[in-house]
Design goal:
Layout (H helix, E strand, L loop, with lengths): L1 E3 L5 H14 L9 E3 L11 H13 L4 E4 L5 H11 L2 E4 H12 L3 H15 L8 H5 L9 H38 L6 E6 L5 H9 L18 E5 L5 E5 L10 H6 L1 H5 L6 E7 L5 H14 L7 E6 L6 H10 L4 E2 L8 H13 L2 E9 L3 H5 L6 E8 L2 E9 H11 L2 E2 L2
Parallel strand pairs: 1-2, 3-4, 5-7, 5-8, 8-9, 9-10
Antiparallel strand pairs: 6-7, 11-13, 11-14, 12-13
Helix pairs in contact: 1-4, 4-5, 5-7
The structure holds guanosine-5'-triphosphate and magnesium ion.
């Protein structure tokens, strides 16, 4: 059930909600859409539509009403009272799917945190009836006291979970520091859920470790693999949690550390399911999430996957619209070599070659960078070393900055 405010294709959105609902065992049998530009603050729908909803619920003996939006506690209470049935919203459905897929300690904590943060603001304002059980006007009845206690328990739990996540994040940073000695490039595979990100990681790393499934949000804990590029250079490639329209804010918050890993990338491969008729809106939705986590300025390559499911014309049309995009059928191993080549060429844009003169006494300092930048040539010249260095711009300037070498270019 949804209000169509014209922001996006409502049928597409409901189609997606249906898919999400099925994933947690709820099978929608009726759809109800109200076309209006605003959402009713108390009822979500207009009053007439609420009555219609109640009739539909009764006629079909419906067990759940699912709203294609995030609703408030008041809207939920009113809809539940009016329809005498349980009301769920889009965020709760997504949270349930996440809960189903949480396997690791971190994933479980993140999901519990997201759920509690969703619940906390929804405990307020429903205490009026409960309060009537006790105290009079102006006093705090036992109902309100119970709610306050409940809120306080949830707040404490939230802060405990946040501490645990911080600890996990701290450990991860330490590990990263150890690993980053080699300063390998990091490539992240991002995109809408179910587009084939984990399948791609498996194909690129010739492994099977990343969990692949034909369902939304199969990946909650992204994995990272070392992958050898055609030149022999090794890079780190990670898959990520899938994006979705209206990705609940509580999820972005709870999974911030996981999502922010994307920010540490040198390059993003944005996977798009070309067989999805609405792929353009999904590209936009993914860009919104990237923006929200501050990763929208990282170089990005669009990859249209699942070309085995569409016609040649569709591929040609997408090529015209996105001339720089890559195309693949990861399932059939088509396009993998081109992806590796493109990763190589994109990363090489981040590099530069510099010729410089360094005093002999300082050469050790430059050598200490040779696990991260490469020394292409060196010769002794008038008591100084002439070096040709190639590597990441930032590392080259850091290395040369340490020895005050003279840059010849
Ligand atoms: N037909 C076809 N199916 C593919 C292709 N690539 C992946 N799939 C299927 O698409 C489904 C989703 O693949 P995943 O790799 O799990 O997708 P994901 O983007 O990691 O999904 P989440 O982690 O759930 O966000 C699986 O059933 C894959 O087998 C492809 O090239 N063609
Ligand atoms: Mg995945």
């Amino acid at each position: 059930m949804a209000v169509d405010s014209g922001d996006f294709d409502i049928d597409e959105s409901l189609e997606e909600l249906e898919l999400l609902s099925r994933n947690i065992g709820l099978y929608p049998i009726e759809r109800l859409v109200q076309r209006r530009t605003f959402v009713d603050s108390k009822w979500y729908l207009g009053r007439g539509k609420v009555k219609k909803l109640a009739k539909v619920v009764e006629a079909f003996n419906i067990g759940y009403v699912i709203v294609d939006d995030e609703i408030t506690a008041l809207q939920r209470k009113n809809l539940e009272n009016a329809t005498s049935t349980k009301v769920l919203d889009r965020t709760q459905v997504i949270l349930e799917i996440f809960a189903k897929h949480a396997e690791s300690e971190e994933g479980k904590i993140q999901v519990e945190l997201a759920k509690l943060q969703y619940e906390l603001p929804r405990i307020v304002g429903l205490g009026r009836e409960m309060s009537r059980l006790g105290g009079g006007i102006g006093t705090r009845g036992p109902g309100e006291q119970i709610l306050q206690r409940k809120r306080s328990v949830i707040r404490k739990r939230i802060s405990l979970l946040k501490k645990k996540l911080e600890e996990i994040e701290r450990r991860r940073k330490l590990q990263r520091k150890k690993r980053s000695k080699g300063a390998l490039y990091k490539v992240s595979i991002v995109g809408y859920t179910n587009s084939g990100k984990s399948s791609l990681l498996n194909a690129l790393s010739r492994g099977k470790d990343a969990k692949v499934a034909d369902e939304p949000f199969a990946t909650l804990q992204p994995i990272t693999r070392r992958v050898k590029l055609p030149s022999g250079k090794v890079v780190l490639i990670s898959d990520t949690v899938g994006f979705i329209r209206k990705l609940p804010h509580t999820i972005v918050e709870a999974f911030r550390a996981t999502l922010e890993e994307i920010k540490n990338s040198d390059l993003l491969i944005h996977v798009v399911d070309i067989s999805d008729l609405f792929y353009e809106t999904k590209i936009e939705e993914s860009l919104k999430v990237l923006k929200e986590i501050g990763a929208d300025d990282i170089p990005r390559v669009i990859l249209f996957n699942k070309i085995d499911l569409v016609s040649k014309e569709m591929i040609e049309l997408s090529m015209e619209r996105f001339p720089k995009a890559l195309f693949s059928s990861v399932k059939n191993g088509v396009g993998i070599a081109e992806i590796l080549e493109r990763i190589e060429s994109e990363l090489s844009k981040l590099e530069e070659t510099v010729r410089c003169l360094v005093p002999i006494d300082n050469i050790g300092k430059i050598y200490s960078y040779l696990d991260r930048i490469s020394l292409e040539n060196q010769r002794l010249m008038d008591g100084r070393f002439e070096l040709v260095l190639r590597g990441r711009r930032d590392l080259i300037s850091e290395a040369i900055g340490r020895v005050e070498g003279e840059v010849l270019k």
